[in-house]
Design goal:
This protein has 246 residues and is an alpha+beta fold. It has 7 helices and 12 strands. The strands form 3 sheets. Strands 1-2-3-4-5 form a 5-stranded antiparallel sheet, with no helix packed on it. A 5-stranded antiparallel sheet has the order 6-7-8-12-11. A hairpin with a 6-residue loop joins strand 4 and strand 5.
Length: 246
Amino acid sequence: MADNQNENNNYEQIIEELKHIPIIDMIYGNGYFEHIYANNYMICVSATSKYRRGRGAYLYKIDPITKEETLIEFLPEENNNLKWTWIMITKTPNGPILNGVRISKGIYPVVWNPTLFYTPKPILSFDLSKNCMEVYYYKIFKNRTQENKLYIDKYSSIEELEEDIYGDCNFGGESNYKDIPFKEVYNKLDKKEFLHKINEMIEEHGNMIVGDLGLGEGNLCVKSDKSFQLGDFLEYLRIELTKNIA
């Protein structure tokens, strides 16, 4: 009994220490992921019964010479005392899923490129190019996150879209292009084509949540079949991320 208690304390201590150890390799499979740490430990989380012992979380020690893996602990999915916050996120080939919401890297617009955006005169062109659309997409979903609006599959009309066209857009580069009124730019564009391109981006990337993720402002793209409020999900995600670095 005492030996079992010592083993439990040992693996819990290891898990706490790993929160501060760099990850040197990641492996993603169909319904599972593996994180290998610089101190030769590996955490595996699986949502499929076909992986190793099945659904759950694994902790391995890796021999630095032979690379042999020694299982230290296996916690099946049904274990209600699971303390690894990683188990809440199921890694898949297309990105992690948190409570049914698929998460992927956010879009960080980069438009300051004279070869792409300058006319023969030194004036930045506001158009419907990919780079500029990323600026508009970012601003639209920053507005929607701050307003705590619902996740959307697409905009059904120009009028619906225009409710989110406000504030300033940041095109980077010179200060003259950092705070451009969104409505002013939008009114110069083909509205039907703008709606079409924004809906294409939503179909490809989903929605984006923009705000403080606990380490300063950031953004993540999210996709889901269910409805949820973007601001509420940002707060929920911030809490989960904070747990991992606490």
